[in-house]
Structures are given as C-alpha cells and as structure tokens.
Design a protein that fits this description.
Blueprint: E1 3-7, E2 10-12, E3 18-25, E4 33-39, E5 46-51, E6 60-62, E7 70-75, E8 80-85, E9 94-101, H1 108-112, E10 120-121, E11 125-129
Length: 131
C-alpha cells in the first residue's frame, strides 16, 4: 500500500520561505513521478511542480508562477520529495498536495498537465502567506 504524508505547511510572511515534505511509504520514490499540486478556496487544483522518476533522469517542471521561486527535489535515502518555496506571495496560499504517478517516458511538463496521471495522493498541507 502506497501512502504519502505531507508536512511543512504553515503561516509565512510575504517574501518568506517554507519547505514542504512528502514522505512516501510502500514504494521506492525513485521509480515514480511525483507532483506537487495546490488548491485555493474556490479554485481548481493546479500542478505546481513535478519531477519524473529517477531512472529516467528526474526531469523537473514548474508552473509559470513557481518558476524561479520553488525548487522540487528528491532524497532517495529518505524516500521523500521536497518543495522548497521562497519569495512567497499571498497568492501562494493554498492547500498543497503531493501525489505519485507510475509514469514512464513522459516529460515532467506533461506529467504536471493532468491529475489523471497520478494514482496516490496525500492528505494535503495548508500554506498561508500573509502579513
């Protein structure tokens, strides 16, 4: 059974930083694509950043709003994927979810384009950016 546990959310000031963690259990995260998605109240869930499986090179993708501010990374020893978020803005306020995809031969941008590629989701962690 695959299980994902997000943590690291909380309250941050504009311009601040947070690091989200997604601890994966039940499978080896190196063999899976992983995505970070977010959903703000009244809005659809959107892909923020994705990383493909390590076996195929670990290609990364960032949505336009995240590019240059967020970094996705994987720690194989801890079976964990991180999302380092910097220069946070109020519009980053959302519930953030991580998800795994048993996807191969796919660039990270394509992986992030649809939730349908992802089989397992975490419970989400709230990020609030406010002064």
């Amino acid at each position: 059974q695959v299980d994902l546990a997000e943590s690291g959310g909380g309250l941050a000031q504009p311009g601040g930083s947070l690091r989200l963690s997604c601890v994966v259990s039940g499978v080896t995260v190196d063999h899976f694509g992983v995505g970070w998605f977010r959903q703000a109240p009244g809005k659809e869930r959107e892909g923020v950043s994705c990383i493909t499986n390590r076996d195929e090179g670990g290609d990364t993708y960032y949505t336009t709003s995240a590019k240059g501010r967020f970094v996705i990374s994987r720690d194989s020893a801890k079976n964990t994927v991180y999302l380092q978020m910097s220069s946070l803005k109020p519009e980053d306020t959302s519930v953030y979810y991580c998800a795994t995809a048993n996807a191969w031969h796919m660039h990270a941008e394509m992986l992030c384009s649809s939730e349908e590629y992802f089989d397992t989701w975490g419970q989400g962690t709230q990020v609030t950016v406010s002064s």
